[in-house]
Amino acid sequence: IYLEELQEELHTARDVSVSKTAIIHALKSRGFTRKKVSAPALKRNEECRAEFQIHIAENYWPEQLVFVDEAGVNRTTMKRERAWVPVGWRAWHR
Fold it and tell me: In whole angstroms, what is the distance from residue 94 CA to residue 89 CA?
């Protein structure tokens, strides 16, 4: 939920007008922090990942490895990039 949506919901449900700054302070004082949202890999298999890591560790030297960042952006989706979550938690897309 965006801060504007939370403001509107508070006004509609409780007839309370609150600034976005007040909402941010309230969230922080209750142990929430704003984080970038992560999307878990849908096809992720922990057993296969562990086997692969063992295979790499047993068969390759660090000097033989090259790491490529495949991060990309899909601007056609409207997913929210940030979320308020309790400190110590991760923010996930559903």
Answer: 15
Tokens of 7: 């403001």
Alpha carbon distance 16, 7 (integer Å): 8
Q: pTM to 2 decimals?
A: 0.49
**CA distances for 17 relative to 8, 11, 20, 44, 75, angstroms:** 8, 6, 10, 44, 34
Provide the pLDDT for residue 86. 82
Beta strands in the chain (DSSP E): 32-38, 82-86, 91-92
Cα-atom radius of gyration of the chain, to the nearest Å?
20
Say yes or no to pLDDT of 77 above 60. Answer: no
